[in-house]
Every structure is written in structure tokens, then in C-alpha cells.
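A student in our group prepared the protein record below, which I am reviewing. This is what I was given:
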Amino acid sequence: MKKGLKFVIWGGVILLLLIIIFLPKVLQSRKDSGEKQQKAVVQPAARVKVMILQAGVIREHLKTTGTLLADEEVDLTFEGQGKIETILFREGSHVNKGAIMAKLNDEELQAQLVKLNLQNNLLQERVNRQKILLAREAISQESYDQLMTDLQSNEAEIKLIRVQIDKTEIKAPFDGVIGLRYVSEGAYVNPATRIARLIKIQPLKIEFAVPERYAGAIKVGSELSFHLDNADENYEARVYAMEPAVDPGTRTMTLRALYPNKDARLQPGRFVSVLLIIREKKDALQVPTEAIIPELGGEKVFTVVNGRAASVAVTIGFRTPEAVEITEGLQPGDSVVISGIMQLRSDMPVTVLAEDSVLNQKHLP
């Protein structure tokens, strides 16, 4: 009886010790589990921005730099040498093709021309008389031929003098704007002396280079836009010529485009930023590149359905630095998450901060 009582007492003590040891842990575990469930219930919704998916045009752009060039440009110089007699242009003015810009003193040449013309008249009269005598066989054919040679030689000298007189004038080779004058009347000049520069600025050329991988994508007639440095206004131009070969040193191909410049607002020599459309696709479903989440088996995006995030596997097509075409997985009208993606999980409640559209062009080119 005493042994049984002792066993009961020790058993009660051990049970009491076990309760004292493990009961707080069980209670704490239940408390933690309750707190987790409570947190799960009160977890705030993720704040995201979405885009309403619509079909639009997606374009692949190429950005590069270029330089504005004059359509025509030439340094005006005399072909001969001598003293400048007259300067007939005003700096910065527009001149027409064929207009005389400046003239050298040509008094000596004009005197020679007068002399040769008098000789030519005399020789012509002698030829007329000799022709009559030759018909009557009063002179030999040899005498007549010698006189004709003298006449032709004199006429050739007249042409030579007239060419030399013509070289004492500078004529505008094309319509354009005359630049600054570098000489004055009375100055002695030669063919190496620059008188002024004539520039044709309507139209203008844009010269730029593209990497060789785009050589086949750009053709004569391709359109482009460009803008000046630190300016927002865009101008449209069209490619009219390109080098037939790639530069082996830079691995680029040089092209030129033409801009009408009808109002003469732009000047040659200016630096420009050029934007070309390499290719484009119409009616394409597209999302910003930041909306795409790469996975081991492909790509996915998050959409918002009934206030909750939904993970959707997609197939991508045409890609640009700013946008990605979606060929499978989405439909027009889907709400695609474009901001706050990293915090999302499937079936997580979300709060939409803003909506956008591909037609807005805010996120896409």
C-alpha cells in the first residue's frame, strides 16, 4: 500500500513538472500561429500601376549622331592672277547662278582683243578678194590656203584672249548665300587666294553612320527624324545616298539624307541627333520591357483580375529597348502590371494606382 501511494505521488510530481515545462511552449506556439493568421488576414494589398493592353504600332529605332552639310559649297577664287578691280557682292547676301562676284583688271587683255579683231577684219577682207582671184585662177591654191590659215590662227587667238578675259571674272556656279569677304578691291591675287565662300543651304544634307548590322535594313528613301543638340523640335528627312561598302576601320556605313530647309532656319556644320525607324509592325500587342519577368521556362507577366494579381505565361515576339511584343498569353483589354512587380505573388490582393494605355505612348515608343 505504501509502495502504491509512493508511485502515485512520484507520478503526479513528474506530470506536474512536464506540464510546467511544456505548457508555456504550447501556449506560445498557439499564440504565434494565431498572430500569423491574424497578419495574413490584415495583410495590406500591393500597390501597383497597370496598363490596359491595346493593339498598336511597335517600332525598332536606331539612334545615332550626324552633321548638317551644305548641299553645295565652294571657295571662290580667280583662275588667273592680277589686281582686283571690282567686288560686286555683299557679304551674307543671296546670289543667283551666273552672277559676277568680282573682277580683275583686264585692260591689257581688252587692248589685245581690239588689236586681234582689227587684224581679223583685215584678213577676212583679203580672203574675200583672194577667193575671187582664185576662181579666176589669178593666184595659186597654195597662196589662198596660206591666207586662210592666217585667218583661222587669228580667230583662235581671239578665242584665247576672250577665255583669258573670262577668267578675270568670278561667277557664281550655283544659287546660294555668299559668306565673308577675305580680300579688298585693289588687292593682288592669284588662284590660291580665297575671295569668299559660296554655300547652298536649301536643301541641307545630313551625314551619319550606322553599325554594319543595320546596313541591309536602311534603304534609299528610308525616312528619319533629327533634332539639334539641346533642342526639342524634330525635323523630317529622307535618305538619298549611301556608301556602297562598310568602313573596315569603324565597321560602320556612311549615309546621307536630304532635308528641304525651305525656311533656311538650319545652318551647315551643326551637330544633330538622328533617329531612324529600322522596322515596324502594326496591330501588335505590346508591353513595356519592365513588365516582363524572365523565368527558366520562358517569360511571364502579372495581370490584375478582380482585384488580385494573376501570373500569366506569355510568348514574346518583336523586341525593342522600350517595348516587347506579346504574341500569345494576353488579349486586348487585359490589365498588365507595369510597376510594383517585384512584390507581387499570385492571387495577392492589389490596389491599382493608375492605368495607362499603349496609345498613350508614355511607356512605349
